Amino acid sequence: MTPRRKRRPRPLPEIPAERLQEVNQWLIDQDVDDVEVMVTDFAGIPRGKAMPRLKFIESIQTRGLRLPESIFSMTVSGEYVYQGLVPVTEPDVLLLPQLDTLVLVPWQNEPTACVICDAYYGTGQPVPFNPREVLRRVIALYERKGWRPVIAPEFEFYLLARRDEPDAPPAVPRGRSGRVDCGIDSFSIDGVDEFGVLFDDIYDFCETQRIAIDTLVHEAGPAQFEFNLRHGDPLALADQSFYLKRLIRQAAIKHGMFASFMAKPYPDHMGSSMHIHQSVEDMATGRNLFADDAGEDTELFHYHIGGLQKYLPAAMPLLAPYMNSYRRIAPGMSAPVNTHWGRENRTVGLRVPISGPENRRVENRIAGADVNPYLAIAASLACGYLGMVEQIRPSRPLRTSAYEKKSRTLPLHYLEGLEELEDCEELADVLGAEFVKLFVEVKKLEYHDYYSVLSPWEIRHLMLNI
To answer: Which of 110, 383, 435, 464 could form a disulfide with 311 if both were Cys (CB 3.0 to 4.6 A apart)?
Structure first.
C-alpha cells in the first residue's frame, strides 16, 4: 500500500465577493433555479451534484461544496480502488467552482446552469488526481520556460439508433430521408444534411455553452461525424471538449438517437479518434516557436516531435484507455499504428499539416475519442515538453505509407501500455507520480472486470465444440 503524502498547508484560492455577486445576479437574470457542480473522473464522466441557486452561492461563501475524494479512484463501471493514495474512509475534498466555466444547460426543461470545479484538500493543496489539475500542472511547466502551448482538438463520434437494452449491438439511425447511412461517404454534405435538425441544435447548444466550433464533417463510417474546435488555450479547450461530449450525447437523445464516442463501436467500420493539433508560442511575444523568421522549422519544433515519438508509447493508457481502444489501432482503418511523422501524411501518428509559419503545428492522431480530454491533452503536451527540454531529435519525416513500417510501433495490448506507463519516470515527473500510480491501478481493475466476462466468441466456438 502506498503511503498518503503529507500536504503542506497553503491558502485556498479566494473568489472575490464582487465576482460572486455578479454571478448570482447573472443566475437571477437567466431565471436559473438549479446549478450542476461537477468534476470529471478518469473516464471523463461528469460527477457532482445539483443544488438550488441560493445553496450554490452560500456553499461557495462557506466552503461547503464537497465530494468524496474516491470519485477520482472510480472505474468506468463504478468500482473503487483504495491503495492508500485514496483512503477507504472516503474523506471529502473541497470543490471550488471555476466561474469562467459557468454556462447554461440548454437541453434542460427548466433554466439550469452548470460549472466545472477544481478540487482541493483542506490544507489548500490541489487534489493531484483531478484530471483538470493534471493538465494545469503540465501547462505550468511550459510557462516556467516562457512557453505557451496552443491546441486544437477534433472529435469523431457515431450517431446510433436508440436501443433500450444496454447490451444491444449498435445500429445505424435513419436520417430525414428515412434511409440508413451505409458509410464510406467521407465529407458528404448530404450526409450531414440527413441529420441537419440535430446539428442545428448542437450548434445552438454550443453557442449557449461558449464552445467555439470550427467545422463539422461527415466521416467514413455510417452516421459518423467529426467536430473541430478552434485553437486556443489547452485548459479552456479541455473544458470545452468536456462540455461538448456531454452536449452531443444530450442533443442526440433529444432527437431519439444516441451518440457514441467509443473508439471502435463497429468491427468493420472506422474507429473514432480525437486528434490534437499542438504548437507552442513565446509567452512574451506570442510568436510561434515552431517556425523561424524565414518560415523554416525550428529546433524546438523538431524536439517537440522527438518527444512525442519517444514518450507517446508510454502515454498510451491516457490516449487509448480501454481494451476497445486498441481495436481501433489497425492498418487500413485510418488510425496510426506507430509514431512516425510526416508532412501532409495521414498514415503517420504525427502529421504536420500544410500551413504558414504562424500556424506551424503537429497533429497527434493517436488518441481515440473515448479519452478523457484533460488527460489526453495533458499526455500529448507532456511528451512534447519532454522532447523540448531533453532536446530529442526526431526521425526523418516519412513520405510513404506508415502502415507497413515495423519501427516506432505503439503498444499492441492494453496491459503492455500500462506497463510502459508504470516504468516511465519522466512522464510520472511531468504528470505527477501520485496521479500516474492511481490511474494505473484504476485501469488494472477495469481490465480485471473486462477479462472476467465471457465473450460471445468464447461461448459460440468453445462452449460446445471442445
So the answer is: 383
Q: Cα separation of 265 and 57, whole Å?
A: 42
Taking the C-alpha atoms of residue 359 and residue 291, their distance in angstroms, rounded to an integer, is: 9
pLDDT in tens, 254-264: 999 999 999 99
* DSSP element (H, E) containing 358: none
Q: Report residue 26 as a C-alpha cell.
A: 447573472
- Judgement on whether residues 158 and 184 belong to the same structural domain of the protein: yes
Contact between 410 and 312 under an 8 Å Cβ cutoff? The reply is yes
Is residue 2 domain-resident?
no
Q: For residue 165, what pLDDT is reported?
A: 86
The letter for the amino acid at 401 is S
Give residue 113's domain range: 17-127
CB 42 within 8 A of CB 134: no
- Give pTM, 2 decimals: 0.96
438 closest CA partner among 89, 134, 93 = 134
The dihedral built from the CA positions of residue 268, 369, 42 and 310, taken in this order, carries a sign that is positive
Q: What is the pLDDT of residues 42-94, one digit of tens each?
A: 999 999 999 999 999 999 999 999 999 999 999 999 999 987 788 888 899 99
Q: Which of 354, 381, 356 is nearest to 367 (CA)?
A: 381
Distance, CA of 157 to CA of 276 (rounded, Å) = 15
- Closest residue by Cα to residue 223 from 254, 258, 247: 258
Which three cell numbers mark 80? 473503487
Q: Indicate if 170 and 280 belong to the same structural domain.
A: yes
Nearest to 300 by CA among 140, 145, 457, 408: 145
* DSSP-derived secondary structure letter, 11: P
Residues 45 and 186 in one domain: no
Q: Does 210 lie in the same domain as 76? A: no
Residue 410: inside a domain: yes
